[in-house]
Amino acid sequence: MDLEQITRFRTERNAFGKHLSIAVEELRPGYARTGKTVTAEDLNPLKVAHGGVYYTMADIAAGNAMAAHGYAAVTVNASFSYFRSAVEGDRLTAEATEIKSGKTICVFDVQVRDQTGALLAAGTFTFFRMEQPLDLA
């Protein structure tokens, strides 16, 4: 499977990720990194990044790390914790690393950090791996 083709396909077809300007920066089977800069549109009423931004970055990172295996998959569970807040202008990254690769169940650890390396949020995402290969057409 061509990882550039998977990245391009999943980026073009992810309207919500595009809306939030989340980019896949690195991809390989079992690993992905996403990134974005916090904008005014990402802020909650307290003027810090909305938790949904962190969660979406993490979910996109884990989903892409799963897809890099070449199979369709769906998220079946996620546990996510928030530790610190980002503000407008901060550069965020979410790194997903596979911790279990099974025939049908795959689990990923995801960490969201700012430009200083401070841990903002972390979670565990569980995917159901389907038998069908990714259809990139």
What can you tell me about this protein's structure?
This protein has 137 residues and is an alpha+beta fold. It contains three helices and six strands. Strands 1-2-4-5-6-3 form a six-stranded antiparallel β-sheet. The protein is globular and about 45 Å long. The chain starts with a helix and ends with a strand.
State the major sheet.
6 strands, antiparallel
Task: Kindly state the number of beta strands.
Answer: 6
Taking the alpha carbons of the first and last residues, their distance comes to: 13 Å
- The dominant shape is globular
Order of helices and strands, N to C? HHEEHEEEE
- Tell me the strand percentage band: 35-45%
Work out the radius of gyration.
14 Å
SS-based structural class? alpha+beta
**Count of alpha and pi helical runs:** 3
Approximately how much helix is present in the residues? Answer: 10-25%
Low-pLDDT stretches are: none
Sheet with most strands: strand arrangement? 1-2-4-5-6-3
Would you tell me the overall average pLDDT?
94
How are the secondary structure elements laid out?
Blueprint: H1 3-12, H2 15-19, E1 23-28, E2 31-37, H3 51-67, E3 71-82, E4 91-101, E5 105-113, E6 119-133
Antiparallel strand pairs: 1-2, 2-4, 3-6, 4-5, 5-6
Give keywords.
single chain, 137 residues, alpha+beta, 6-stranded antiparallel β-sheet, 3 helices, 6 strands, 23% helix
